[in-house]
Model the fold of this input.
Amino acid sequence: MKEAMRDKVCQLIGKYQAEEAFHREKAGPIHSSNWPDTDAVKAACCRDFLKDLEKLLEER
Done:
């Protein structure tokens, strides 16, 4: 059971790393004017990750 949970958590981490990379690429070079947008994207990714992780842990 521990291996299955570990695999699921690793899949979630990979999912959000890919999403973050996509948004970083889309945003292009970071300038001081882009920081709020970048921070908002990161915050949204973290919020979504935590919600998904919480659901995953509740399934257990």
In short: The chain has a mean pLDDT of 78. The helical segments are 2-27, 35-59.
